[in-house]
Design brief:
Order of helices and strands: HHHHHHHHHHHEEH
Largest sheet: 2 strands, antiparallel
Number of strands: 2
Oligomer: single chain
Structural class: mainly alpha
């Protein structure tokens, strides 16, 4: 009887576990399915009593409309430029900052290192109005260059802190041996430390790109015309008063998610390794 009771208990625990996992999958994948399905529906299947869960008739109309009749390609191109420049600058400044905090010694080093994570934790809304006033004086409103600078305020601290954790795992003997052999500090950084930090670079690349790509608050505040808007602020322009073009918005959302999915697909192995090493050995 005890063996039977144990088997029933283990079976019940397994069923409960699978039930919870199934609910979490539905919770996570349900909205993604709804976005994808809605992007292929006609309007009559989106609104009113004829709304369907599965499209009866597939259509590419929403995609052709948003690509050829709306300024979506301009939004996409602006987002790509801003995200690429922000990511590149974040990796450069984050690498230099992390190297300084880990391998150099100077007054206030620990305080400055801790302040990096504090600045990252500051809500962007607190910086929005001071940045708006500053950019307005510098004539950077309605400019993608202003958005690039604004995005650096939260990507650089993250990259620096993440790379600091990984640089601690690189043996100091390699750094000291390179200096003894006559290599400069910049040479040591970019010839020794940087190549060994591939997984961490992959992590900060993906996160910086994603943070910049998905950013909405600064994009909606600092850009007002279609020539400087990004995808996040541009898609919101498809809402006209109380009219929502859901099919076009969902098609734009599907297209907007492709770059981050592609980047994660190519960097997933390095990213997982960077997260694990940075978390365990930091």
């Amino acid at each position: 009887m005890e063996v039977v009771e144990k088997r029933f208990k283990s079976l019940g625990a397994a069923l409960l576990t699978y039930l919870v996992l199934a609910l979490l999958c539905v919770w996570t994948l349900g909205p993604l399915y709804w976005v994808l399905a809605t992007s292929f529906k006609y309007d009559k299947e989106i609104y009113g009593a004829e709304a369907t869960l599965v499209p009866r008739e597939f259509t590419w109309k929403n995609y052709t409309t948003i690509l050829f009749e709306k300024p979506f390609p301009n939004f996409f191109f602006n987002s790509v430029r801003i995200a690429l420049v922000t990511t590149s600058a974040s990796i450069l400044f984050g690498t230099l900052g992390a190297y300084a905090f880990i391998y150099l010694r100077f007054p206030g080093q620990n305080l400055m290192a801790r302040s990096m994570i504090v600045t990252y934790l500051i809500p962007p809304v607190l910086l929005a109005f001071p940045l708006f006033a500053l950019f307005n004086k510098l004539d950077l409103i309605d400019s993608i260059y202003g958005l690039m600078l604004a995005h650096l305020t939260f990507t650089v601290p993250f990259c620096t802190w993440m790379l600091m954790s990984y640089f601690k795992t690189v043996p100091r003997e390699l750094h000291e041996a390179a200096l003894v052999d006559g290599c400069t500090r910049l040479g040591t950084l970019f010839r020794i430390i940087f190549p060994l930090s591939g997984p961490a670079i992959a992590v900060v690349t993906l996160f910086s790109f994603t943070l910049s790509w998905n950013e909405f608050l600064y994009a909606i505040m600092f850009t007002q015309n279609k020539w400087s808007q990004t995808i996040t602020s541009g898609l919101s322009s498809l809402m006209v008063e109380d009219i929502f073009f859901w099919g076009q918005m969902m098609a734009g959302s599907v297209l907007a998610s492709l770059p981050t999915v592609i980047i994660y697909f190519f960097f997933q192995r390095l990213m997982i390794k960077g997260l694990v090493v940075g978390a365990v050995k930091a």
